[in-house]
Amino acid sequence: MTGSQRIHVLGSGPYGKYIAHCLAGLANAPPVTLILENSNSIKNWKEEGGVINVIRRGKVISERGVQVELAQPLAIQAHGTKPKKDIIDHLIVTTEGIKTVSMLSSIKGRLRSSSVICLLQDSLGVVEEINSTLFSNLLERPNYILGSISHDLRSTNKEYTVVERSTGYTKLTMLKPLSTTHGDIGINCHCQGLVRRIGHAWNERPRYLMRTITRSHTLNANGELMEKYLTSELQRLAINSVIWPLSTVLNTPPGLLLHNYHAKSMMRDLLEELSLVIRSLPELSKMSKKDKTFSVDRLMNVVQSSIAKSRGQGLSIPSLVKARLRSNIDYWNGYFVRRGIELGIRSPNNEHLIRLVKTKAAVKGFEMDLHIPFGPRKR
């Protein structure tokens, strides 16, 4: 494999630090670099000893094999650290979907069409936004790996100490490049929700990054075919798109949704739209049991089961949606609305719910402190 084996991790929350910690702790570990957002994080890194700590079952596990650098292209940093200009061959992104494009824009000059970007997020539709905003030229688009991680992690009062509350799994799938005609060069398109590339076969770099991630027993990672990955992720996204927005708008714990007739009716109305969009997606056209897997009744059962398992204990998120930010709802309900429009399917209930969530966010602003089950996590 040509190019560097160094893996860069972009994400200032606990998930970015946790992944950097796991990869740097591998036997014959690759070089690992954590990309930081500002010079204050560099200062904290030095003050905390240049080490990432993970607290697992009460035991502190330290890892010193991680390097750090700044993302912002500033000429001179306050603490004597200048941003790097070398090419990034392998990049893992754990930022929230809402921040991904702005963070990637700060290092866009270091990415090439041969680079690999692994998006480990709670969102769908981010690739399309990256391409339309940063890589409108098809020939310049990098390779993509989609992923999700279910570990329960929490930050502490130390920036580089993470608490591992419980382990889960990491799912990965490669977005296979698709050929297109010469006339499509430079045109942004979804291409059935995937990524268009021109005349490029898979190179070794995506496989190298996937193999490296799956080597970590702690991450418990596995590669999946796109259909299997989408099946689980679309189901998870449907859960988020019902429970989280309704809990936010109604300002009620999720467990109470099951005891409110009108709330349950709203849940079903939302799921009817989501079910139709999912079953109409062209990337699932060859899935044999999609009508059963994504039927309204089954999705309703999955949502109710998820609420029951949470026992009404939502995740407390202070300042859920600040006035200057959009909510992650743009990558949950918003994803289904956009895909539906592409397919000629309108989702009025989900469109209205998005407006309600954003309106409430604008009204509450920085004073919001809601208890919700699947709210945005700093990654």
UniProtKB/TrEMBL annotation:
The keyword Repeat does not apply. Keywords: NADP, Oxidoreductase. GO terms for cellular component: mitochondrion. Residues 7-160 form the Ketopantoate reductase N-terminal domain. Residues 233-360 form the Ketopantoate reductase C-terminal domain. One of its GO terms (molecular function) is NADP binding. PANTHER family: 2-DEHYDROPANTOATE 2-REDUCTASE, 2-DEHYDROPANTOATE 2-REDUCTASE-RELATED. Belongs to the ketopantoate reductase family. This is 2-dehydropantoate 2-reductase. The lineage of its organism: Eukaryota, Fungi, Dikarya, Ascomycota, Pezizomycotina.
